[in-house]
C-alpha cells in the first residue's frame, strides 16, 4: 500500500500531468462553447421551435447519460489515458458531423456521437483524484474549473468571430482542437492509474446500465443526497443555459457577437473566481457552506436577469452568476469523493457525469416547454426556485463519519 504521498512521485511530474489535463480540458471546453453562439441559429434554419433548439443539448445529454458510467468503469479497469483519448476523439468526430450538418437530423447526429463519447470530464476528474491527496482535492479540482472558465472566454469569442463568417466554421475549428488534444495526450500524457490499482473483475451486463450504476452509488452512506443535490442543481442550471442565447436574441434582439460577449464576460468572471476566490473561500468556510451560498446567489442573479428590461444589465448579472457557479464543481466533487474508496473514483465521476447528463435532458426539455408555453425567459425565474431547493438540500447534508483517505497514485515511468 502506498502512503498518502507516494515517495517516488516527483512534484514536477505531477505538475506536468495536471498541466496536460488542463490543456486537454481547455481544448474540449473551447470546442463545446464555440458552438453556443451559432447552434441556435443553425437550428433555426430548419425549425423555429425553442424546443428544437434545446434538442441539440438534449440529444447530446442522452448519449452522455447512457455512456458516462460505463466510461468511468472502463477507466477504473483499463486506465484513464486510453479512455480519455478515445473520448476526445469521439468529440472531434461529433463536431465534424455537426459542421457538415445539412439538415436538422445531421445536427442531431453530430451531437449524439459527441454525447456517447463524452466521458472526458469524468475521466479527467478521476485522473485529478488519482494524483491528489485528500487535502489537495479541492484545489486540484479547480484545474478543471479553470479550464472551463478560460474555455468560456476563448470559445464563445472564437465562435462569435468565425460565426460571423460562416455558421458552420466554429464546428470545424472545434473538431480540429479535439484532434489536436488527442495528439498531445497520446504523446505526452502519462497514465495515472497503475495496473495494480485497477478493477480486475469481469464486466457484467449491469455495468452497461447507467441506472444500476447510479443506484449502486446512491446507496453509499451520504452519497445519495449529494447526487440528488447535483441532479437538482444541474436541472436548473442546464435548463437556464439551454435557452439563454434564445432569450437574449428574442427579448433584446441580440446579435451573434452580443451573445458571444455575454458568454465571454461569463467566462472572465468564472475564471477570476476560480483562480482567486474558490480555494481560499472553501478553505476558510468549508465546502458545504460555500456550495449553499453559491447556489442561493445563483437564484438571485437568475431572477435579476429575467426582470431586467435592457441588455446591458445582463452582462454584470451573468458575470456574478458565473462567479457563484465556479464553486459548485469542486464543492460537489470533493464532498462526493470523500464517500467512496480510491478505486471507485472513476465510477463515481462517471455517475456524477451521468446524473448531470440526465438533467441535461430533462432540464432543457422543461426549459424549452415552459419557454414556449408559459412566457419568454420563464426558465430563469422558475430555475431560481429550483436552485434554492438544491441549496437547502445541500445545507442538510452531513460530513461522513469516516472519510476515506484516498491515496495519491504514482504515475508509472
Commentary on this structure:
The chain is mainly alpha-helical. The chain has one domain: Growth Hormone, Chain: A. The chain has helices at 11-34, 39-44, 50-78, 80-100, 104-116, 120-130, 137-163, 169-188, 210-218, 223-252, 256-285, 287-307, 314-325, 328-337, 345-373, 378-395. The two termini are 18 Å apart.
Q: What does this entry show, briefly?
A:
The chain has 413 residues and is mainly α. It contains 16 helices and no strands. It has one domain (11-190, 206-395): Up-down Bundle (Growth Hormone, Chain: A), CATH 1.20.1250.
Question: How would the blueprint of this fold be written?
Answer:
Blueprint lengths: L10 H24 L4 H6 L5 H29 L1 H21 L3 H13 L3 H11 L6 H27 L5 H20 L21 H9 L4 H30 L3 H30 L1 H21 L6 H12 L2 H10 L7 H29 L4 H18 L18
